[in-house]
Amino acid sequence: MGVLTAERIKITSTKSPWWCTIAVVVLGLGLAAIVGFTSKLGLDSYKDELAQGNTPDFEPFIPSAFEAIGAGVGGFGVMVLMILAALTVTSEYRFGVIRTTFQAIPNRSSVLIAKALLVGVFGFVLSFILAIGALYLSRALAGDEAGALLSLDVDGTWRVIYGTAILAFLQIVVAVGVGALLRQSAGAIALLLLWPLVIESLFALFGSFGRAVQPFLPWMNAGYFLGQDGGVDFHWGPIGGLIYFIVFTAIVFGAALLVTNRRDA
Fold first, then answer.
1. Nearest by Cα to 134 from 222, 40, 70, 225
2. Tens-place pLDDT, residues 37-59
3. Cα distance between residue 44 and residue 32, in whole Å
């Protein structure tokens, strides 16, 4: 508890967590609002074309919970939380504070675990609340027709909501592990952003080899758990995708604990 208290004071005494929280809220709710508003505009335009006797050359966009929550809260919002989590470690290395921390708390593993738990639980709660808020905000702007799938009664909606929160916690733990392994803010942030956004997407360009590797990519499995397979032929179900990402998280964080305990601060 003493370690948790010390880490809580360090994290909350700086401005970056507050700015990051504001950014997550703005991104999560803002993108959900855009999804709802644009879906209503698209449906209205589709109806206007039909009313004029024309055959629309497009289909109206009817968003699901994944579109309303995934892009903002589960996508860019969680990435901001990952950056915050990585900075809780790399900033201490940058300013040399980590030496003082390890002198006060010889059990280095407890320091990393405390950081991961504090930011992870915060990210879980924030993501869960924002996911519900994003769903209702998007539905309110989309209207009853365009927002027909934006309801808690629709199959798969609750999995997107609680799944987004669970994955937020796991990705924050990964971010703390990456920060401890690299110890540099720029490198850790670059890896955490490029890995899910770019690196995993590149495997689709490698033909049969890429298709064989894609089922074993961690963020592909995270998306699969939320209901988006991305055209990938997975060898297990959505729950298997979550278990795979949990194992990946454990490996990264376990490696971070091992390396942190063995090398000089």
1. 70
2. 999 888 888 888 778 877 777 78
3. 19
Residue ranges in 67-217 assigned as alpha helix (H): 78-95, 97-104, 108-146, 157-182, 185-194, 200-202, 207-213
User: pTM of the prediction?
Assistant: 0.92
Q: Which residues form the domain of 197?
A: 2-262
Q: How many domains does the chain have?
A: 1
pLDDT exceeds 70 at position 239? yes
Closest CA to 173 of 92, 243, 251: 251
Q: What tokens were used for 198?
A: 């770019």
CA separation, residue 35 to residues 40, 62, 65, 135, 188 (Å): 9, 9, 10, 10, 31
Half-sphere exposure of 206 (CA within 13 A, CB side): 11
Residue type, position 210, single letter: G
What pLDDT, on a 0 to 100 scale, did the predictor assign at position 125?
96
Q: CB neighbours (10 Å) of residue 37?
A: 17
- HSE-CB at 224 with a 13 A cutoff on CA atoms is 25
pLDDT at 11 over 70: yes
Contact between 2 and 106 under an 8 Å Cβ cutoff? The reply is no
Burial class (CB in 10 A: 0-12, 13-18, 19+), 30: middle
Q: What is the mean pLDDT of residues 248-262?
A: 94
Dump pLDDT digits (tens) for 85-133: 999 999 888 888 888 888 888 888 888 999 999 999 999 999 999 999 9
Q: How far apart are CA 236 and CA 259, in angstroms?
A: 32
> Cβ distance 214 to 220 under 8 Å?
yes
